[in-house]
Amino acid sequence: MLTIDTFTSDLKSYLEPLQVDQIKKAYSFAKDAHQGQTRKSGEPYISHPLAVASILADMHMDHQCLMAALLHDVIEDTGVPKHTLSKQFDDQVAELVDGVSKLKSIFESRAEAQAENFQKMTLAMAKDIRVILVKLADRLHNMRTLDYLYPEKRRRIARETLEIYAPIANRLGMNNIRVEFEELGFKALYPLRSSMIERAVKKARGNRKEIVSNVRQSIADCLEREGIEATVFGREKHLYSIYDKMRSKRRSFHEIMDVYAFRIIVDNVDTCYRTLGAVHNLYKPVAGRFKDYVAIPKANGYQSLHTTLFGMHSLPIEIQIRTHEMEMVANNGIAGHWLYKSSDDTASGSHKRAREWMHGLLELQQSAGNSLEFIENVKTDLFPDEVYVFTPLGEIYELPQGSTPIDFAYAVHTDIGNTCVACRIDRRLAPLSASLESGQTVQIITAPGALPSPAWLGFVITGKARSSIRHALKNQQRSESITLGKRLLERTLQTHQKSLADIEPIKLAKVLEDRRVPDLESLLAEVGLGNQMAHVITGMLITLPENAEESEFHGPLAIRGTEGMVVTYARCCKPIPGDHIVGHISAGRGIVIHSDHCKNIQDLQKKPEEILPARWDPEVEQEFSVELRVELEHEKGIIAILASTITAANANVERINMLEKDARLSTVNIVLSVKDRIHLANVIRRLRTIKVINKIIRVRS
Fold first, then answer.
1. What's the pTM?
2. What are the phi and psi torsion angles at 540 (to 5°)?
3. Which of 12, 197, 289, 573 has an alpha carbon within 20 to 30 A of 551's alpha carbon?
4. Interacting residues of 273 by C-beta distance below 8 A, sequence separation 6+
5. Strand 305-310 to 316-323 pairing
């Protein structure tokens, strides 16, 4: 059993005597605080914090982190307040312990509680990244002692570990901890599957020993002939990785085990590439299976050259080539920063990337609408199959698989994403919804004043893009509602030869107080969104003559088509310029424009205060959707003929839906976009020239 004396004796190799004394003091404090408490195994509770500290000591973490590990349960389990820890030790240790305590129950049964706790974890991680290292070590020791728990609780903890803790360890580059999480989690969650694969691996290993030994020796001899000093290891496949590949790639156990894996450790980066050339000369490389993570590291700082070769008897051989430092980073990730940090304390590659990831999580948290949206975005970023793309200047950006140019634009900068209008992939114009592939060069074309489209939410992948778009759309709607609200209010004031500039500040302040809004902009936004009626606000701002009728406030509102999200066009009647229109003031949505003969607007006439006379502005240039129902006789290729005829009339087809009527006749519904009624008439006139068409009807209501 581990004792404080054996623990601290190992620390003397890398910590100062004074720091070791402080760790002993923290141990004594924790032991007294946990006095009388035991674990499920029957051991004194202090054995757990000591084991957690030991895991972190193996990574050569600093003394404050080890003290926090020893004290990590005292706030939660013994009632010792945070200020006591600050007084006994220092503020940093107290903050670390407090941060770990807040992460005590990341996951509960309710999704909202789960998401909110994950947000707490993010904040704690962002303040000091050592918080998550203590939490990972805490979870690792709990996984090692899982056998003492009831089966149901064991499975729940194992599932949490595989779903969240293992991906976080992977994201921070801590491969050793990730592998142990996966192995222990797999064994606890699927004991039967784990034992079956373990037996199969032992059986296969006996048959493979000679082959592995021969291949390893041939690689070592080849490198020696080339004058390259290197260490060659045969890599064992882990049970969970075998299971995961069998499940995700639908391969049999023997297909996975028939691949032999080796790792070559060398002194420097130049030797990595020389070694690659040597092994490619020794065995034939498999085309398309080479990956250079040295020049382009993974997001978690991982660096290595990966290649697959056809070895003896055409056996596939996977080779990883890396330096000693890369090996350290691959195993310990961000924790390696404390082990190998330089005298000027500059952040290592993995530490810097982890910080960038934390910064990205904070940005997500600030712009996410709620905690559930936040955790949905973070889970996407925890499981990235990376794609590496370039800017025109050669900068590299790492994105999750399936990312689009919009995701790339937001990765470069939020403002570039918000003003994006088009893109070029490898110098060719491409759709903004295109999936990016590694090695492509992406150029984003922006335009001043451009705004994100709600349609982007349908295809973006990254959490940052999704939350930034939603945030921009909220701001866009407010800006547009203020503009529309000002137009509506000015229009009603003009009927009394007044404008907003003429309103006395005292009168305006009284109205703002009555309507419970903080300022004029908020009042205008409420009017634009339909939450306040313009004629009611006008009546409060000015003294109306006794004989004034409500109708005096209603001159038709000119619809320009550029009002944005606060003016929408009814889907029921699909009005277009040239139609007689009215507006319906809908609370929270702004104004919905209907044709004046629409059945739905007839039902709304009972509330005249919500009906707004409207007209089309002569300068309107937007395109509008309209629906046609076409009855026609069957003919081969008729859909293509309809589409090309509509396109020839400079209109766009949005949707075509064919409903077979009988054996000879069919009905086709076409949704197309046109500029106005004249444009629509031209389209219909061209369609009538198609002989098989019997009838064309514009669908209204």
1. 0.57
2. -80, -30
3. 573
4. 305
5. antiparallel
Q: What percent of the chain has pLDDT over 90?
A: 29
CATH architecture classification, 624-699: 2-Layer Sandwich (3.30)
- Report H helices in 299-390: 324-332, 336-340, 349-367, 371-382
Annotated catalytic sites, by residue?
A: 76-77
Q: How far apart are CA 503 and CA 508, in angstroms?
A: 7
Going by pLDDT thresholds of 50, 70 and 90, the confidence category of residue 227 is very high
How far is CA 516 from its chain centroid? 37
- Paired with 390 in beta bridges are 396, 441
Which pLDDT value is given to residue 339?
43
Round the average pLDDT of the chain to a whole number and report it: 82
80 touches 33 (CB < 8 A): yes
Give the integer Cα–Cα distance in Å for 428 and 627.
Answer: 34
Average pLDDT over residues 450-467: 86
Contact 529/566 with Cβ under 8 angstroms? yes
Q: Which of 43-47, 494-498, 616-620 has the lowest mean pLDDT?
A: 494-498
Give every CB contact of residue 661 below 8 A, 6+ residues apart in sequence.
631, 667
The rounded distance, in Å, linking the Cα atoms of 162 and 141 is: 15
Distance CA 18, CA 24 (A): 10
Nearest by Cα to 671 from 649, 656, 687 = 656
Residue spans of beta strands (DSSP E) within 436-542: 442-446
Closest CA to 94 of 103, 85, 102: 85
Q: Domain 351-462, CATH 3.40.190.10 — does that match?
A: no
Task: Take residue 587 and report the two structure tokens written for it.
Answer: 């609370």
Q: In this model, does residue 492 exceed pLDDT 80?
A: no
| Domain coordinates in residue numbering, the chain | 4-189, 201-336, 351-462, 463-547, 556-622, 624-699
201-336: which CATH architecture? 2-Layer Sandwich (3.30)
Q: Which residue in 288, 298, 468 sits closest to 397, CA to CA?
A: 298
Distance of CA 567 to the CA centre of its chain: 30
CA angle 505, 510, 516 (to 5 degrees): 120
- φ and ψ at residue 529, rounded to 5 degrees: -85, -5
Residue type, 402: G
Q: Which residue has the tokens 């330096």?
A: 323
pLDDT per residue as tens digits for the range 298-346: 776 788 999 999 887 778 889 999 999 888 877 877 665 554 443 334 3
Give the pLDDT confidence of 90-146 residue by residue, as tens digits. Answer: 888 988 888 787 665 444 434 555 555 555 556 666 667 788 889 899 999 999 999
